[in-house]
């Protein structure tokens, strides 16, 4: 045996053994994943801002922020609070909408009756994004609420009295990052509603194109003009190039309009097409764009998109120990680990990416990714996604479910104002700004269960401290849940070998 063959054999064995350990401990049934799917969508009802509809299921919430935008003569009622506070941040709200839509686009046909609830969750923010983008030409409203003031209080959204300042980007103060993400969200949502509500879908797509045009023509980062209220919360650290390419890619997917194909071809190289990068989040869209455009190459035979398949493969190899490009970090319990703050956002986005790429690869009959001399199959990608999903749902060293309301043990001290304060229905008297803090610091469990919320999650030693003030671990966020919805739909509908 030549040394080279030996190395490749060993490497292959390592990859196979590693994959084997990922799928040895089957415990959750398809029913469990179905239950988790239902709850993962229900969570979005807990984040709703605005007038709640009669069919609101998460009953402890009430109407809130009913005059958002009014002092600026614009209707900005609705949308989602991003996490445990009461600010409506445009960049993560748009990204949430894009990923929730992506979940529905790829795996909605596996959702059964939950598809209605999933579409409802997309529509809740798509309606808001339409208001935020369509009211004034070349203007996009990107935030309601002053986060510094909001964070000085611990108040239920239903009786908050902090300033609901409105922030926008315009031709003079551009925000290509937030605008192109909004365009991506509107385009992705237009695919969700293409059959069920064609006129709404058309409106979403037309608005998306206008917002993209604004994002592209008036270039700049919203962090430059709005830094004092978007940073450090949702500062655009990665700049706006990634969002421009992502936005164009979603409009291309939604419209199949050649202008966007040409845009991607002529601008891709300057907008990050050739860069490898390894995390996919509300800030950085490069990995998602590559996988999204790979479909164009794999399924629709757009030769120009082969480049994106190559970089998607590089990304996959970066996750597989023993691969030449391996660079991911896993905890000893097997969790993908990127950072101490809301780490599970990277895990859920990676799970959606893995399952989506597995789908694109297998629908093409081209089943394997080459990582050096080893080949990684769709089944391997699914096994890795399953390991991450199962970990989140409770198969982990701490024996803790990181989905609220799911399983035997889950966090009782979620960092979330509404969940930790008594409901307006049981305690109608106002809880003032400072009076709320006793609930933040209290050791008592949250009175209201934020069903389905995925939290920031454990540290790099698989440890979790169920402490309400430990927001890095105990705070939920809409963009943690959004990609998880698609992953759960896949496992709820797919029988797994033991
Ligand atoms: C394609 O997109 C371009 C740019 O937005 C637009 O001007 C054109 O009308 C679109 N074509 C069709 C057929 O929708």
UniProtKB/TrEMBL annotation:
Span of the signal peptide: 1-27
Protein name: Endoglucanase
One GO process term, biological-process aspect: cellulose catabolic process
InterPro entries: 6-hairpin_glycosidase_sf (IPR008928), 6hp_glycosidase-like_sf (IPR012341), Glyco_hydro_9 (IPR001701), Glyco_hydro_9_Asp/Glu_AS (IPR033126), Glyco_hydro_9_His_AS (IPR018221)
UniProt keywords, alphabetically: Carbohydrate metabolism, Cellulose degradation, Glycosidase, Hydrolase, Polysaccharide degradation, Signal
EC number of this enzyme: 3.2.1.4
Transmembrane segments: none
Recorded family membership: Belongs to the glycosyl hydrolase 9 (cellulase E) family.
Catalytic residue positions: 415, 466, 475
GO molecular function terms listed in the Swiss-Prot or TrEMBL record: cellulase activity
Glycoside hydrolase family domain location: 33-488
Reactions it catalyzes: Endohydrolysis of (1->4)-beta-D-glucosidic linkages in cellulose, lichenin and cereal beta-D-glucans
Pfam family, one: Glyco_hydro_9
Xref: PROSITE patterns: GH9_2 (PS00592), GH9_3 (PS00698)
Entry-linked Gene3D superfamilies: 1.50.10.10
């Amino acid at each position: 045996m030549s040394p080279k063959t030996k190395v490749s054999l060993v490497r292959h064995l390592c990859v196979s053994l590693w994959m084997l350990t990922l799928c040895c401990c089957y415990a959750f049934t398809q029913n469990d994943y179905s239950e988790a799917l239902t709850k993962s969508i229900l969570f979005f009802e807990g984040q709703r801002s605005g007038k709640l509809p009669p069919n609101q299921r998460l009953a402890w919430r009430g109407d809130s922020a009913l005059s958002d935008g009014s002092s600026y003569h614009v209707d900005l009622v609705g949308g989602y609070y991003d996490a445990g506070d009461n600010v409506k941040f445009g960049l993560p709200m748009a990204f949430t909408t894009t990923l929730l839509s992506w979940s529905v686009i790829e795996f909605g046909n596996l959702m059964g009756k939950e598809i209605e609830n999933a579409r409802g969750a997309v529509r809740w923010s798509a309606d808001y994004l339409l208001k935020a983008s369509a009211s004034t030409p070349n203007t996009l409203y990107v935030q309601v609420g002053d986060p510094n003031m909001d964070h000085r209080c611990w108040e239920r959204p239903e009786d908050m009295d902090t300033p609901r300042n409105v922030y926008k980007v315009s031709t003079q103060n551009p925000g290509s990052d937030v605008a192109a993400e909004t365009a991506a969200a509107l385009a992705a949502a237009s695919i969700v509603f293409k059959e069920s509500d064609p006129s709404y879908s058309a409106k979403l797509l037309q608005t998306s194109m206008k917002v993209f045009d604004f994002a592209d023509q008036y270039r700049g980062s919203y962090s430059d003009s709005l830094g004092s209220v978007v940073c450090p919360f949702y500062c655009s650290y990665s700049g706006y190039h990634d969002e421009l390419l992502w936005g164009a890619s979603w409009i291309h997917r939604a419209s199949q309009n050649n202008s966007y194909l040409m845009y991607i071809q002529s601008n891709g190289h300057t907008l990050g097409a050739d860069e490898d990068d390894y995390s996919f989040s509300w800030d950085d869209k490069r990995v998602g764009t590559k996988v999204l455009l790979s479909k164009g190459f794999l399924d629709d035979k757009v030769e120009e998109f082969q480049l994106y398949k190559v970089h998607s493969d590089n990304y996959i190899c970066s996750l597989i120990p023993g691969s030449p490009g391996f660079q991911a970090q896993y905890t000893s319990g097997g969790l993908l680990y990127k950072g101490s703050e809301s780490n599970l956002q990277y895990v859920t986005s990676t799970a959606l990416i893995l399952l989506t790429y597995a789908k694109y690869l297998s629908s093409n009959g081209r089943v394997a990714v080459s990582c050096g001399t080893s080949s990684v199959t769709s089944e391997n990608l699914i096994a890795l996604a399953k390991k991450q999903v199962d970990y989140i749902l409770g198969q982990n060293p701490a024996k803790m479910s990181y989905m609220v309301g799911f399983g035997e043990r889950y966090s009782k001290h979620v960092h979330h104002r509404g969940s930790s304060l008594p409901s307006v229905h049981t305690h109608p008297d106002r809880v003032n700004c400072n009076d709320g803090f006793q609930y933040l610091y209290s050791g008592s469990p949250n009175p209201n269960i934020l069903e389905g919320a995925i939290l920031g999650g454990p540290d790099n030693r698989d440890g979790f401290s169920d402490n309400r003030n430990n927001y890095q671990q105990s705070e939920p966020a809409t963009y943690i849940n959004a990609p998880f919805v698609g992953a759960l739909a896949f496992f709820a509908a797919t029988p797994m070998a033991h």
